[in-house]
Amino acid sequence: MPQGKIVKALSGFYYVQDQERLVQCRGRGVFRKNKITPLVGDEVEYQAENDLEGYILEVFERKNELVRPPICNVDQAILVFSAVEPDFSPTLLDRFLVLIEANEIIPIIVISKTDLISSDKIRGEVQSYAKDYENAGYTVLLTSTVESTVENDLLPYLNDHISVFAGQSGVGKSSLLNVLRPDLELKTNDISSHLGRGKHTTRHVELISVGTGFVADTPGFSSLDFTGIEVEDLSYCFPEMRERSSSCKFRGCTHVKEPKCAVKEAVEKGEIPQYRYEHYLTFVEEIKDRKPRY
After folding, report:
1. 135 falls within a domain
2. Which residues are annotated as part of the binding site?
3. CA 206, CA 22: separation in Å to the nearest integer?
């Protein structure tokens, strides 16, 4: 049986990309019985007499699954944050990074609009932040508003992967995608505008081919709370803490008040930036204050 990837789901139809062929499929009744809902990003086996009358027979195992946006098998998240206009926000970036890490998706940090920096002080601050995140183990790309730099810097990372774009609003996510796929003609601040959403059209996720990869056409993460993340899991979402946790005196150390904590020692030595640790403590309190769900 042929196999392919679901690149769009709309009104009960699933559009399966099989190399150059796009096949409109319905899910088999067995999915409803087993409570399986095919998602954009799913690798599936299908049967089709023609391009308009196919059936999905099997959904293969997923490596991850996001609820908002509803998509699965995401390889990486392109987190776009601007150097200026709006100013770079490490607090918001750390919040995104925790959510991405918790879903076992590889984050790639893009700091855009670097050519619009007007002072040496701000340039130095942005470069210092970029170095901190690189030292933590992240890939950081500094891009300008010049189109050629976007293609040269970003496109190689998108090839052969499923990527989602997320980040601050107004940072140029649509502008980046417009450079990579000019035919989309995305309006600024609306990554999904090319779907022609009107009053009666439903919002949906779609995978757009960019280079030899796919980019999810979605506004990214619509919720930035830490539902599902427990205090004991949080440090695993900070790579520089994750790698030091085994050196703490106490197993299950939360790196808050425990003695002989390798993470706190690394903060004191300047090996972990103070602001990253402070964000971690803020997130710990936020998770503790979360109202229990019954």
Report:
1. yes
2. 112-115, 167-175, 248, 253, 255, 261
3. 13
Residues 47 and 76 in one domain: no
Point out the annotated binding site for GTP. Answer: 112-115, 167-175
Are 75 and 212 found together in one domain?
yes
Query: Does one domain contain both 142 and 182?
Result: yes
Rounded-to-integer distance, Cα 145 and Cα 164, Å: 20
Domain that holds residue 239: 231-288
Cis amide bond preceding 86, omega within 30: yes
Q: Strand, helix or coil at 254?
A: coil
Residues flagged as binding site for Zn(2+): 248, 253, 255, 261
Tell me, yes or no, whether 101 lies in a domain. yes
Q: How far is CA 280 from its chain centroid?
A: 19
Please tell me whether residues 92 and 211 are part of one structural domain: yes
| pLDDT tens digits, one per residue of 62-118 | 999 888 788 999 999 999 999 998 899 999 999 999 999 998 899 999 998 899 999
* Opening angle at CA 139, ends 71 and 162, nearest 5: 25
| C-alpha radius of gyration, the chain, whole number | 21
**Structurally, how many domains does the chain consist of?**
3
**Distance between CA 290 and CA 128 in Å, rounded?**
33
For 123-134, how does the pLDDT look when each residue is reduced to its tens digit (9 = 90+)?
999 999 999 999
Residue 111: how many CB atoms within 10 A of its CB? 23
> Could you report the per-residue pLDDT of 152-183, keeping only the tens digit for each?
788 899 999 999 988 877 776 777 788 888 88
Strands 54-59, 21-27: pairing kind: parallel
Type of residue numbered 154: L
Identity of the residue numbered 3 = Q
